[in-house]
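in:
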């Protein structure tokens, strides 16, 4: 070895990257210590042999070989590939190759440098993973923020509803007196009139006034705040009284209501006002689920075994997806457009029925309808 060659060898042996020089026949002319270690043989046994045999255990030049490309193009090459070592461990290899040219400028030899960049790659992948994770967190946060904002809106809406409730009850008080007066004057008129046709008309007016008064009294009863005053109540009366409040809605939405009442159902010790609130919300929800009209069935039945009564509210409306079924009882969950739903109805129903030691169950299929069953202990 000449002095300059020895210097070069020593210098390149100190480098961790594998460095080889090969000729046009892929014969190894030079290699550093790292390269011979990678090949697993002493340098003297490798020099003069084909690089693809010794370094890559192939019988012909490797596919995508950077050295072959250098001989082809005369230009430096660079690639990064996944490789698998003798123990089956995967690693990233960065391969550089550049030409050594003769005096005519033709590529005579190629210098190859292989560098294991697995660690750097894994770090990069880790960073990419963290970036994705961060993106996900940001999206979640944004979603939570949107949800909070919509809840705030709904809370405002709920407050508005509460004040409308107050307004309704004072309006009902205001209307009660004039209606009583009108009804009194109708009676007086009827005493003085003997024409049958006119009498019939007055009768119709009186009947309609009675109906108005009933609705108003119901509204008053309903809006009265109560701290769970339990009394023995007939559930069928509670249902019928509540239905008076929604009669008009049912009519304009072309909804057919069928009641099947079980006469064996005994009186229940409940807060009638609260139970009416439950009935009203379940019926209103059913009406909302029937935008094109349809049927609502209300059924009562006695469950002697469970010592309870069951009130079934069934509609053949839009139904609730199985995904939403777990959420409908959560406060503020609504699928209705702003101003139409507060998402509080079912959660309040649930609270009321729980306070009566009962339970509400739900059975629904998207597109075919919904059935709520309220069970109350006897
Ligand atoms: N009978 C029903 N048919 C279809 N969906 C219903 C029915 N009852 C309740 N839901 C669903 O449950 C949600 C929550 O109901 P609720 O708590 O009463 O609040 P709101 O009526 O204000 O939306 C409704 O928005 C609706 O998506
Ligand atoms: Mg509702």
């Amino acid at each position: 070895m000449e002095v300059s060659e020895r210097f070069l060898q020593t210098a390149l042996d100190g480098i961790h990257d594998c460095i080889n020089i090969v000729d046009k026949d892929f014969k190894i002319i030079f290699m550093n210590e790292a390269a011979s270690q990678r090949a697993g043989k002493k340098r003297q046994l490798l020099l003069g042999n084909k690089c693809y045999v010794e370094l890559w255990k192939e019988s012909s030049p490797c596919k995508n070989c950077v050295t072959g490309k250098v001989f082809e193009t005369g230009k430096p090459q660079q690639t990064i590939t996944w490789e698998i070592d003798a123990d089956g461990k995967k690693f990233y290899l960065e391969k550089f190759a550049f030409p050594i040219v003769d005096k005519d400028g033709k590529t005579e030899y190629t210098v190859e440098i292989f560098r294991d960049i697995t660690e750097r790659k894994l770090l990069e992948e880790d960073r990419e993973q963290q970036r994705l994770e961060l993106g996900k967190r940001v999206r979640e946060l944004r979603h939570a923020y949107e949800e909070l904002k919509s809840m705030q809106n709904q809370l405002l809406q709920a407050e508005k509803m509460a004040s409308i409730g107050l307004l309704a009850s004072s309006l009902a008080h205001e209307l009660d007196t004039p209606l009583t007066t009108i009804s009194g004057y109708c009676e007086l008129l009827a005493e003085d009139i003997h024409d049958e046709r006119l009498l019939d008309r007055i009768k119709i007016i009186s009947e309609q006034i009675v109906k108005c008064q009933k609705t108003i009294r119901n509204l008053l009863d309903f809006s009265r705040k109560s701290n769970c005053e339990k009394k023995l109540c007939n559930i069928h009366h509670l249902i019928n009284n509540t239905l008076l409040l929604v009669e008009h809605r049912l009519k304009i939405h072309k909804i057919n209501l069928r009641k099947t009442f079980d006469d064996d159902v005994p009186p229940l010790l409940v807060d009638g006002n609260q139970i009416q609130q439950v009935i009203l919300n379940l019926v209103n929800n059913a009406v909302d689920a029937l935008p094109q009209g349809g049927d609502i069935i209300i059924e009562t039945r006695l469950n002697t075994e469970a010592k309870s009564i069951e009130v079934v509210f069934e509609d053949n409306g839009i139904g609730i997806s199985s995904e939403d079924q777990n959420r409908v009882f959560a406060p503020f969950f609504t699928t209705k457009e702003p101003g139409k739903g507060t998402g509080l109805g079912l959660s309040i129903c649930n609270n009321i029925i729980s306070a009566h030691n009962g339970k509400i169950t739900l059975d629904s299929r998207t597109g075919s309808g919904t059935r709520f069953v309220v069970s109350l202990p006897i």
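note: The two ends are 107 Å apart (CA to CA).
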